[in-house]
Amino acid sequence: MTNMQRKVAIAGGSGLVGSYILQGLLADPSVKEVHALGRRPLNMLHSKLKMHVSDLSSIPPLPLLDEVYLAVGTTIRTAGSQAAFRRIDFEANLAIARAAIVSGANRIGLVSAIGADKQSKVFYNRVKGELEYALGQLETEALVIARPSLLLGDRKALGQHSRLGEKVAAVVLKAFNPIVPFAYRPIEARKVAQALLLLVPSITGSIVLSSKVLLKYG
User: Fold this and answer.
1) How confident is the model at residue 60, as a pLDDT?
2) Can you tell me the distance from the alpha carbon of 135 to that of 165, in angstroms, rounded to the nearest whole number?
3) How would residue 180 be classed by pLDDT, with cut points 50, 70 and 90?
4) Which of helix, strand or coil describes residue 73?
5) What is the mean pLDDT of the chain?
6) Share of the chain above pLDDT 70, in %
7) CB-based burial of residue 211 (10 Å sphere; 0-12 exposed, 13-18 middle, 19+ buried)?
8) Would you report the helix, strand and coil content of the chain in percent, each value rounded to 5?
9) Cβ distance 74 to 12 under 8 Å?
10) Domain residues of the chain, as ranges?
11) Residues contacting residue 160 through CB under 8 Å, at least 6 positions apart
12) What backbone phi and psi angles, to 5 degrees, belong to 33?
């Protein structure tokens, strides 16, 4: 595309990976408009940025788009139940993707998770896998799925609660980093965002990126 022509939507721009995706889009000279979807307004202003606030259960009509980044996510503990978790991680992301496609988007970038598998016995992994599968059934030119391992980043700076489990796991995994397979090594959220920002506008077809591959592109 020519300079300043891409019109992009992002859901979850206040999250750990989503915030880096948002920053990258706003700084990209080939991006003309960034439409941020979320449950509350972002605490920032930018000439390219347009905000669309909703509870994500019903997506308002969107303007013309070229691509969409899906970074909406939570934990079962934060959501309060498995049903509530599914409404956010599966239903909201899928509804946003469908709304974006109706508005012309033919490229999707998804922040998923390691272990995503629609046939998994683990609820969290199964929901992630079901979303990947559902997105794969949509008619798009490109679908880039990032499956990072443990994410590293400053959640406190984003106004999020620190996750004790993540902190402990990060320390343990770093200590054994030389013998931990690349796919399971902790990865900076910034690198996940960078890989998606690089590949979503440029590839054709579907691709799944493990942490090992994300490190390469990020």
Assistant:
1) 85
2) 29
3) low
4) coil
5) 87
6) 83
7) buried
8) 40, 20, 40
9) no
10) 6-217
11) 15, 16
12) -135, 140
**111 sits in which H/E element:** strand 107-111
- By mean pLDDT, which of 10-14, 109-113, 127-131, 179-183 is the weakest? 179-183
Check: CATH 3.10.450.50 for 6-217? no
Q: Return all residues near 188 (Cβ < 8 A) that are at least 6 apart.
A: 151, 152, 153, 218
Rounded average pLDDT over 71-81:
90
Q: How many residues does the chain have?
A: 218
Residues 6+ apart with CB under 8 A from 44: none
pLDDT of amino acid 150: 85
DSSP-derived letter for residue 33 is E
How far apart CA 164 and CA 143 sit, in angstroms, is: 32
Q: Return d(Cα 217, Cα 88) in angstroms, integer.
A: 28
In three-state secondary structure terms, 9 is strand
Tell me whether residue 83 is exposed, middle or buried, using C-beta atoms within 10 angstroms of its C-beta: 0 to 12, 13 to 18, 19 or more.
Answer: exposed
Distances in whole angstroms, Cα of residue 49 to Cα of each of 26, 57, 199? 7, 22, 22
Residue 135 CB partners (closer than 8 Å, separation 6+) = 70, 93, 94, 97, 108, 110, 143, 145
Instruction: Say if residue 69's pLDDT is above 80.
Output: yes
- Tell me the β-bridge partners of 152: 188
| pLDDT at residue 174 tops 60 | no
- Distance from C-alpha of 164 to C-alpha of 201, rounded to nearest angstrom: 35
